């Protein structure tokens, strides 16, 4: 067991900002914070179980057909997530729409299976999956937070009791910067965030020297 | 919806890259020069066209009569993976020159979100088989249009001074964002004005 496998996904090898995998859902579902959290939880679940299963089966799956095998394993877990969300959280299910079945082709999951789970022990693979999944959720939430706060002046969370789950931000709610919540704004924001992370990691490297 | 309306929807109004963000990985990864961008675009268009029809047939011919709709994600991805493999083998046999041009892109296409995305959208939008084919081809053409425009922009960017932290990927995203702003001019109103809805 190696605790480094758990923490590397959070910052050093953050799937969204550093390795740049799984871009489609990252930009597609981040119009509201709750959708980002739902997507992150879905990916975390699928990643966790597929990493464990692939790591457990790594000596049984023939090398030449490993990719189709991985895809079938991943697709089975995605189907479970789809059915569970459809039954218990229909509003998130419809908000995620086509991006939910598309978790199957999310490069993060196949990428971790290929790069990590088929070479490492079950426990390490599970830790790797948790780290990567949480890192993915964090970056998704960050993007969603920026887009929702500036784009529509709200923060949408879970509805609890009388609270309907929507926080309104005074000035921005009246005059939102609409473009940030649109497609173009997502791409622009992603570009600037990526540049920021590049600048940040370069600066950190400079300090380390 | 008429076929022209479907075509316009997926090429311009709901462009898969610039509006729906499907297929961003190859869009950023393969758009460094225009030659490979065209190759990737054509390969994707071909595969989306064929898989749209195949997935429609699998869904309406096998899954629906047996009441197994919930298996659509698994069966579609299997159909796509098998088909891409088949296309690769057929092209290698029939036309080695075409294989040389498209070959390296074909394995990448299996995990291209557009292919699975359009197959699922065809089902949720209740298209018939011909409409599915048209939407598949249009989705691929929309991707081709976006990736060719992008590769030309990036070739120009190579010669332009760009701040070091913005080099490569960040500037590509920002260019794509500006392109998406331009594509916002195409909206549902276009279809209404043309009298297609």
Protein described:
The complex is a heterodimer of chains A (209) and B (197). By secondary structure, chain A is an all-alpha fold. Chain A has one domain. Chain A has nine helices and two strands; from the N terminus they run H-H-H-H-H-H-H-E-E-H-H. A two-stranded antiparallel ribbon of chain A has the order 1-2. In chain A, helix 3 crosses helix 4 (66-88), helix 3 runs antiparallel to helix 7 and helix 6 packs antiparallel against helix 7 (122-151). The longest helix of chain A is centred in the middle third of the chain and has 30 residues, at 122-151. The radius of gyration of chain A is 18 Å and the shape is globular. The two termini of chain A are 30 Å apart. The termini of chain B are close together. Chain B has one domain. The model of chain B has no long low-confidence stretch (mean pLDDT 85). Chain B has helices at residues 3-13, 24-29, 34-66, 72-94, 96-102, 106-109, 113-124, 129-158, 169-183, 188-193. Chain A binds chain B through residues 20-21, 23-24, 26-28, 67-68, 71-72, 75-76, 78-79, 82-83, 98, 101-102, 104-105, 107, 110, 179, 182-192, 194-196, 198-199, 202, and chain B through 18-25, 28, 70-74, 77-78, 81, 110-113, 116-117, 120-121, 124, 163, 165-166, 169-174, 176-178, 180-181, 183-184.
